[in-house]
Amino acid sequence: MTPHPPASPPPSFPTRVPARVPARVPLVTEPASILKSLLLARRNLLAILPDIATKQAVVSGKTGVRWHMLMDPDAIRRVLLEDLENYPKSDATKNILRPAIGESLFIAEGAHWRWQRRAAAPVFSHRNVTALAPVMSAAAEATLARISSAKGRPVEIYDEMVRATFEVITNVTLSGSDTFDAAEVHAAIDAYIAAAGKVSLFDILGLPQWLPRPGRLRGGGSLRLMKSIADSAVTARRSAPAKDTPDLLDLLLDGEDPETGRTMSTPELRDNLLTFIVAGHETTALTLSWALYLCAFDQDIQKRARDEAQTALQGRTATADDLGKLPLCRMIIDEALRLYPPAGILSRTAQVDDTLAGREVRAGDTVMIPIYALHRNALLWSEPDSFNPERFANRKAVERYAYLPFGDGPRICIGASFALQEAVIILATLLSQRVFKPVEGKTPEPVMILTLRPEGGVWLTSEPA
Ligand code: HEM
Q1: 3-state secondary structure of 59
Q2: Among 70, 154, 328, 433, which one has the highest count of C-beta atoms within 10 angstroms of its own C-beta?
Q3: Do the domain assignments include residue 4?
């Protein structure tokens, strides 16, 4: 990988990690060869980000294909909003996800994307998301009970958060389905993500299509299982009586394109259902895990958040009605999403020749928005590596295209408000009742495969507040 132009003669050692900065990855400071990039990226995709991506507005290079990393808010706005048609999601992204979620909302382009987005939009309206909050409160309560039962022994928080968010997403999609076995679906998704992650390294670095992709060959069994479970859930639900509070699957079944009246077929419903499950639970679990890690890292902020949560909740579990009374908890979630964005790199393929951030872009080039580097770019953020939730106290002061945990423009994450509501309900409930402390010598390492995960786990102890 050869970034150009070089910012200055690169030192040959990683950037020093200053003290009292939460976990971060020392980004590469020397131009690496293609082979070295591949080897580094096998373990951690963040290794393809050069350190200068946190200091400059654009970095370009060539690894099989020409690529550009954009950290310039105006250029990013062009790609995600103004010139959307010229920058569809890259083949890499689509190749990885298509076997699991077909031509669903996440992957489709043009007219096929547009009608699905219009049909699915009401599913995530404020009213519908608020109505699903009791499922999130119940998961928060169950998680609190599990963590409390450890009686001060270290708990691996990421596992707990995955359990919580998986419970939420399956309760709002697959509940009532006879054939559904939560553990089985979970294992299938895990196996798929692990396999797909291996594929992504090859695809993102632009290696030729003829090279065998190990994951692609192994993902088959888990995919078939996931699809058959989702198919039976959709079929069963078509004939089930209407419920008082419709869940995501009910709402999706009712969804129609307001312009054409078109509704989704069973395979389309199944693919979108799987999209919600795959896109929705791990990302939110990661946000919560990093947020709790940060709270344990900074006891002072944790105490202030606890005071806020205790005042708002008075010993109860958080509900949707409490959200307005939990601004600091929300800021902690926002800051966790800045420091550890679950979708660490977005990738597009240019369709036409263009100029972005002063750089010549040719049709076929890969245009990356490395959210991890954007969120830590020194031109855009003060003390970018520090944990400071207060930077979100005045949202208007945060430059819109400098902070993109959910993307932006027409393809912005459709589940963002669902995820934020779930994260604040679970975080506030846990902080109001427990004091979280780090475990000596157990700092998680941010490692990106498909999402930005805490390698080594988030090990924390907790005691009653
Ligand atoms: C903290 C949690 C989440 C994060 C950080 C996140 C992040 C993102 C990002 C960055 C994108 C845009 C990708 C791109 O432009 O290339 C996206 C799209 C999407 N997300 Fe999320 N997501 C989260 C939760 C959810 C949830 C809970 C759901 C559904 C239940 C969901 C469903 C989707 C879908 C369907 C899309 C594609 C939308 C479209 O292209 O029209 N996400 N998400």
Answers
A1: strand
A2: 70
A3: no
